[in-house]
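During the reporting period the student researcher (J.K.) took over the structure-prediction task from the postdoctoral fellow and processed the backlog of single-chain submissions. One of the processed entries is reproduced below for the supervisory committee.
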Amino acid sequence: MVLSWIFNSLTPDIVDSVISYDTAHEVWKDLRNRFSQSHAPLNFQIERDIACLAQYQMTVATYNTKLKEIMDELDFYNNATCTCGVDNKRCKLM
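J.K. obtained the following C-alpha coordinates:
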Protein backbone atom coordinates (compact mmCIF):
# COMPACT_ATOMS: atom_id res chain seq x y z
CA MET A 1 0.00 0.00 0.00
CA VAL A 2 2.78 2.46 0.92
CA LEU A 3 4.73 1.43 -2.14
CA SER A 4 1.81 2.19 -4.45
CA TRP A 5 1.30 5.56 -2.72
CA ILE A 6 4.95 6.44 -3.36
CA PHE A 7 4.71 5.36 -7.00
CA ASN A 8 1.55 7.44 -7.49
CA SER A 9 3.31 10.46 -5.99
CA LEU A 10 6.21 10.34 -8.45
CA THR A 11 6.54 11.39 -12.05
CA PRO A 12 6.51 8.50 -14.54
CA ASP A 13 10.22 8.81 -15.40
CA ILE A 14 11.20 8.58 -11.72
CA VAL A 15 8.84 5.63 -11.18
CA ASP A 16 10.60 3.83 -14.03
CA SER A 17 13.91 4.20 -12.17
CA VAL A 18 12.61 2.76 -8.86
CA ILE A 19 9.98 0.26 -10.04
CA SER A 20 12.39 -2.65 -9.54
CA TYR A 21 12.52 -2.24 -5.75
CA ASP A 22 10.42 -4.64 -3.69
CA THR A 23 9.84 -2.54 -0.59
CA ALA A 24 8.86 1.04 0.17
CA HIS A 25 11.96 1.32 2.35
CA GLU A 26 14.26 0.55 -0.59
CA VAL A 27 12.46 3.09 -2.79
CA TRP A 28 12.62 5.71 -0.06
CA LYS A 29 16.36 5.14 0.50
CA ASP A 30 17.04 5.49 -3.23
CA LEU A 31 14.99 8.69 -3.51
CA ARG A 32 16.55 10.16 -0.38
CA ASN A 33 20.08 9.46 -1.63
CA ARG A 34 19.26 10.87 -5.03
CA PHE A 35 17.42 14.04 -4.04
CA SER A 36 18.56 15.06 -0.56
CA GLN A 37 21.32 17.62 -0.35
CA SER A 38 24.27 17.89 1.92
CA HIS A 39 24.47 21.03 4.00
CA ALA A 40 28.09 21.65 2.88
CA PRO A 41 27.04 23.94 -0.03
CA LEU A 42 24.84 25.89 2.35
CA ASN A 43 27.74 26.26 4.80
CA PHE A 44 29.92 27.53 1.97
CA GLN A 45 27.30 30.09 0.98
CA ILE A 46 26.92 31.32 4.56
CA GLU A 47 30.69 31.57 5.00
CA ARG A 48 30.86 33.55 1.76
CA ASP A 49 28.12 35.87 3.04
CA ILE A 50 30.18 36.48 6.18
CA ALA A 51 33.34 37.18 4.19
CA CYS A 52 31.53 39.58 1.83
CA LEU A 53 29.56 41.43 4.49
CA ALA A 54 30.51 45.10 4.53
CA GLN A 55 29.25 47.89 6.74
CA TYR A 56 28.67 50.46 3.96
CA GLN A 57 25.91 52.78 5.22
CA MET A 58 24.82 50.57 8.12
CA THR A 59 25.36 51.72 11.68
CA VAL A 60 27.79 49.67 13.75
CA ALA A 61 24.85 48.21 15.70
CA THR A 62 23.01 47.20 12.52
CA TYR A 63 26.18 45.71 11.02
CA ASN A 64 26.88 43.79 14.23
CA THR A 65 23.30 42.47 14.33
CA LYS A 66 23.47 41.32 10.70
CA LEU A 67 26.83 39.61 11.30
CA LYS A 68 25.48 37.86 14.40
CA GLU A 69 22.42 36.61 12.47
CA ILE A 70 24.63 35.09 9.79
CA MET A 71 27.02 33.58 12.36
CA ASP A 72 24.08 32.08 14.27
CA GLU A 73 22.79 30.51 11.04
CA LEU A 74 26.21 29.01 10.34
CA ASP A 75 26.42 27.72 13.91
CA PHE A 76 22.99 26.13 13.54
CA TYR A 77 24.01 24.13 10.46
CA ASN A 78 27.41 23.20 11.86
CA ASN A 79 25.77 21.81 14.99
CA ALA A 80 22.81 20.14 13.28
CA THR A 81 22.00 16.79 14.83
CA CYS A 82 22.69 13.98 12.44
CA THR A 83 19.94 11.37 12.24
CA CYS A 84 21.32 9.36 9.36
CA GLY A 85 24.23 7.68 11.12
CA VAL A 86 27.12 9.43 9.37
CA ASP A 87 29.38 12.21 10.55
CA ASN A 88 28.11 15.80 10.55
CA LYS A 89 30.13 16.92 7.52
CA ARG A 90 28.52 14.31 5.29
CA CYS A 91 25.12 14.27 6.95
CA LYS A 92 22.16 15.16 4.78
CA LEU A 93 19.55 17.34 6.40
CA MET A 94 16.18 15.68 6.29
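The committee noted the following: The radius of gyration is 20 Å.
J.K. will present the remaining backlog at the next meeting.
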